[in-house]
Specification:
single chain, alpha/beta, 2 domains, five-stranded mixed sheet, globular, glycosyltransferase activity, signal
């Protein structure tokens, strides 16, 4: 059964839904630095204090429902991976609201790397999606035909390539003008095509309503995820690690030097075919936190934070590039590994597996904040880079303490100020680790 579903869907469900079962244990709101180091593992299994903050996605009392007659139909093609597409769906709903348009059920690309062609109908509960948003936007499965004077006419959507991070004004001028002229527009591609920073709380709340309430996975996927999570939790605490060390991310990052000549050839070919040309120097990329952490580096971070080899880890990852030589050091540090295959509900027992910015990590982090400030570890790759470089040069003394110094400056999932777009561009966080 697992094999028939997208790995991305299963992994997202396990990491997202399992947070709902995490224990809500209170922690000392202001621990001393020494107590942080001594009790870091115990604290990380707990949930952070809310500080009185709570989810707020409900619209204001004077939020008007969509009008009976809209300005036309909006089609979008959501490209990228599952989580990038999920963000695009949220933006599509908001774009439809901004233009007073009827949204056609978003189209999901068959991802070129994961080869997932499930589509919106195969992944999400469409009836729930439409019903949840009925007071926000009108949604239809397809553009209906126009019947006039006994004749049937099909409406052909006018295709537009929207600019990246387009402001609201673009939708109210260029896009809306085309919609009124052609009755329907088709925005493609639609990844990151609406500005994230919008000075309108109601629009941001609508995004939250879509992401955290309207987008619900289909029942059979939910049941599968629940079964897997139950099986993982039956043996106590477990940690979910989103280990982003697959070919597409490595090619995108341009961090090739740690691979052999044949592997570098493969990565460079993939990058040339899928990403824009760019000057890439490994040491420079690593120093600014642009290179994904290797599995061994991930293991060393967790060890420095006092997680031992008895820690159970669910590995959320596809096929790791470079094979077992990269995974072996991690498995040596943490032998109790599971993945989506090893916890198939049809199996008798749990069996061990040897198997960048990240849309998955950002989406998961948002869910864990929204549903109760669950612990999420997001290593600062830029801050850790000089620590690992020093270790590679033989300076191993004080390594774990240096790692802890960097990590203790990290927010582990409690309330924190929203990071501005500029600061988010400057700061680089990578791997996402979710503690259950």
């Amino acid at each position: 059964m697992v094999a028939n579903l997208s790995i991305g869907v299963i992994v997202l469900l396990i990491c997202t839904l399992s947070l709902l079962f995490s224990a809500s244990i209170r922690r000392d709101p202001e621990p001393t630095r020494s107590s942080k180091v001594i009790n870091v593992v115990e604290e990380l299994w707990e949930s952070a204090e809310s500080g009185g903050w709570r989810p707020s996605s409900a619209p204001c009392s004077d939020w008007p429902p969509p009008t009976e007659e809209t300005n036309g139909y909006l089609r979008v093609r959501c490209n990228g991976g599952l989580n990038q597409q999920r963000s695009a769906i949220c933006n599509a709903v908001l774009a439809a609201r901004i233009m007073n348009a009827t949204l056609v059920l978003p189209e999901l690309d068959a991802n070129s790397f994961w080869h997932d062609d499930s589509g919106f109908l195969g992944i999400y509960d469409v009836e729930h999606f439409i019903d949840s948003l009925k007071y926000d936007v009108k949604i239809v499965g397809k553009i209906p035909d126009v019947h006039k004077n006994g004749k049937t006419k099909k409406i052909k959507a006018f295709q537009i390539r929207p600019p990246r991070d387009a402001p609201i004004d673009w939708y109210l001028t260029t896009a809306l003008t085309a919609m009124k002229e052609h009755s329907a527009i088709y925005l493609t591609p639609f990844s990151h095509r609406l500005a994230e920073e919008i000075d309108n709380p109601e629009y941001q709340r609508l995004r939250c309503r879509v992401n955290y309430h309207a987008l619900r996975f289909k029942l059979h996927i939910m049941k599968l995820s629940d079964s897997i999570v139950d099986k993982l939790r039956s043996q106590g605490h477990f940690m979910s690690i989103h280990l982003r060390f697959e070919m597409d991310m490595l090619a995108f990052a341009g961090c090739f030097d740690i691979f052999n000549p044949e592997e570098q050839k493969i990565l460079k070919k993939y990058r040339k075919e899928n990403f824009a040309e760019k000057r890439l120097i490994y040491n420079e990329r690593r120093a600014i936190g642009k290179c994904p952490l290797t599995p061994e580096e991930v293991g060393l971070i967790l060890r420095a934070m006092r997680f031992d080899n008895s820690t159970r880890i669910y590995l959320a990852a596809g096929e790791l590039f470079g094979g077992d030589r990269f995974m072996k050091p991690f498995r040596t540090l943490f032998p109790r590994l599971d993945n989506h295959s090893s916890v198939d509900p049809s199996s008798e027992e749990l069996s061990p597996t040897y198997d960048g910015p990240s849309n998955f990590a950002n989406n998961l982090f948002g869910h864990r904040l929204y549903y109760g400030f669950r612990t999420t570890i997001r290593p600062n790759r830029k801050g850790l880079a000089p620590v690992f470089v020093a270790r590679e040069k033989g300076k191993t003394g004080g390594f774990e303490e240096a790692v802890r110094r960097v990590m203790m400056k990290t927010n582990f999932g409690g309330p924190h100020r929203r990071v501005s777009l500029l600061n988010r561009f400057i700061r680089t966080h990578g791997l996402s680790v979710s503690v259950k």
